[in-house]
Amino acid sequence: MATQHLDAAADRELSELVACTLNDTSLKTQRERWINLGENFGIARHEVADGLRLTFKDHPAVVAELEALVQVENDCCSWAAWTVERSEDSALVMAARSQGEGIATLHGMFTSEATPWKNSCQNC
């Protein structure tokens, strides 16, 4: 019995690590904001060994929105490290990095079916 209890506790801990803490309304709002940003300024989506990189056109409004979105993600999905960076060609990049199951979860996010990424590149 003790072993089963520990296994169940480990499963709950793992699911908490890769779960979003937003309620349904906040999650819907966050998703809509990502879609809007992607539709208007999204350039590419790249799966990388430790997570995901989304590239956006450089624009002051994009910087502000991207930083706001990343702040929410760092709070609600703290199982990954979410950052805003600049690429070598000065494009804006949202980089999300994780470990273990978090990597697979990131690879499943922001897919071309769920968001309007113009250029998807698997394992780039």
- Percent of residues in helices comes to 40-55%
Gyration radius, to the nearest Å? Answer: 16 Å
The best one-word shape is globular
Largest sheet: 5 strands, mixed
H-E string: HHEEHEEHE
Précis, in short:
The chain is an alpha+beta fold. 47% of the residues lie in helices and 23% in strands. Strands 3-4-2-1-5 form a 5-stranded mixed β-sheet.
What order do the helices and strands come in, and which of them pair?
Layout: H1 2-17, H2 24-41, E1 42-48, E2 51-56, H3 60-76, E3 81-86, E4 92-97, H4 101-107, E5 119-121
Parallel strand pairs: 1-5
Antiparallel strand pairs: 1-2, 2-4, 3-4
Output the keywords.
five-stranded mixed β-sheet; single chain; 124 residues; disordered C terminus; 47% helix; alpha+beta; 4 helices
What does this structure look like?
The protein is an alpha+beta fold and 124 residues long. Helix content is 47%, strand content 23%. It contains four helices and five strands. It has helices at residues 2-17, 24-41, 60-76, 101-107, and strands at 42-48, 51-56, 81-86, 92-97, 119-121. Strands 3-4-2-1-5 form a five-stranded mixed beta sheet. Strand 1 and strand 2 (51-56) form a beta hairpin. Helix 2 runs antiparallel to helix 3. The radius of gyration is 16 Å and the shape is globular. It starts with a helix and ends with a strand. Residues 1-16 and 119-124 have low confidence and may be disordered.
